[in-house]
């Protein structure tokens, strides 16, 4: 079975970059990415590549090469579904905000809508690929919807979860640690798996393409995110102990990371993990465990999220207590709003919670982020409903220049690890702040020794000394 025409439903942070790379590497396959969000599709089609809706290093070049050749972005969902041999579903699967499982279970309404649309539109056999992260056994629900259309079309469902990390999406897609494909053990299922293997084999070595049954594939994605988030919460838990004992978290990370059983990656203490996936996927796992009556398992994983909340709250608490127990009317500048560097994605960013806490203490915030728009920052805050939209705009100002942002600040908080923050003229910044001038480095990226020589009072996560 040779695939000639791919459709991807969902032109977001996963669908856009993933399909761009597939199109770049497979010039003989026509790839159409569709979305109901017209603005998003218009942005993907924008002549000016700096206006693409997703910022990822190197993505503009990939899009430039393939767009208009064999990569297309469109709002004509039905047509793209009908034309395709293989359909990727890459829509959002947020945490449910209503009804049973509220605040925990994955909301599968967008997935189900896609399945129903495919069932309605498809006239020939199709392979449907789950690219979204889904609870284990979702494929059976999709299958049931697709098979009950009565129009005789045959569907094969594959699970092909995406492991890219935002900020390094293009490199992760070009050189993945592994590609995981789950499918049915039947002959037809194996043929569908092979069709997808053949696509990835255009640029990924065979030994990195792993095939499993559907349920293992679905569960592996949730497991991977749970393990990664757990590592962050584990090192963050140790960072508090460091601050209380005089140990230094960077020294501890280095010491344990040299143990080959532990390894050095993902051991950086911080103000907490963010991003659209970790929290949602762990909560989803917790919900699955609960539905099977596995309360101990559920409690074990839930603690990873609780620890993360604690880390964000204690960061803002520390700012308040260090600034003499009141930040009311004081100006605090945030460097960074994105949940990590090299992305414009702010979903579940630690900055949002820290800002909300400080605004509740009546601080005045000034925010500078190299890639996040003012509109996005206000939308993130307004979504919390903690105060009126007018008040958010009155108390928080977004700046597009770091040196303007810090003028007359009492403190600076580093919320995202953007490289450019390390290169600033910190003497100039110090000179333009109120004294004593405080820095709260929530990402451990600044040279606090050099900063304290200038005169700053520095707090670094996981380090006991306030120099
Ligand atoms: N963002 C990541 O780093 C990442 C990594 C791996 C996996 N995932 C998973 O991938 C999935 C997508 O994540 P994302 O970050 O790309 O989400 P996103 O919100 O950026 O994009 C999803 C897109 O799907 C569109 N959509 C929703 N329903 C639709 C429909 N019926 N028809 C057409 N378009 C529709 C939305 O308009 C939106 O543009 C999620 O399940 C997520 O958990 C995300």
Task: Give the secondary structure arrangement, pairings included.
Blueprint: E1 5-9, H1 15-25, E2 30-34, H2 38-44, H3 59-66, E3 71-74, H4 77-83, E4 86-89, H5 109-121, E5 126-130, H6 138-147, E6 155-159, H7 169-174, E7 179-183, H8 187-200, E8 209-213, H9 214-245, H10 249-257, H11 278-291, H12 295-322, E9 331-335, H13 350-360, E10 364-368, H14 374-384, H15 389-395, E11 396-398, H16 402-405, E12 411-414, H17 426-431, E13 438-441, H18 448-454, E14 457-460
Parallel strand pairs: 1-2, 1-4, 2-3, 4-5, 5-6, 7-8, 9-10, 9-12, 10-11, 12-13, 13-14
Helix pairs in contact: 1-3, 5-6, 9-11, 9-12, 11-12, 12-13
This protein binds nicotinamide-adenine-dinucleotide.
How would you describe the shape? Answer: globular
Q: Which class of the largest domain in CATH terms?
A: Alpha Beta
So, the CATH homologous superfamily of the largest domain?
NAD(P)-binding Rossmann-like Domain
- Which percent bin holds the helix content? 40-55%
The whole-angstrom Rg is: 24 Å
Strand residues, percent: 5-15%
The chain-level structural class is alpha/beta
- The count of strands amounts to 14
First-residue to last-residue Cα separation: 65 Å
| CATH topology (fold) name of the largest domain | Rossmann fold
**Mean of pLDDT:** 96
Q: How is the biggest beta sheet arranged? A: 6 strands, parallel
The count of helical stretches stands at 18
| Strand line-up across the major sheet | 3-2-1-4-5-6
As for the number of domains, it is 2
Catalytic activity: UDP-alpha-D-glucose + 2 NAD(+) + H2O = UDP-alpha-D-glucuronate + 2 NADH + 3 H(+)
Pfam families: UDPG_MGDP_dh, UDPG_MGDP_dh_C, UDPG_MGDP_dh_N
EC number: 1.1.1.22
Family: Belongs to the UDP-glucose/GDP-mannose dehydrogenase family.
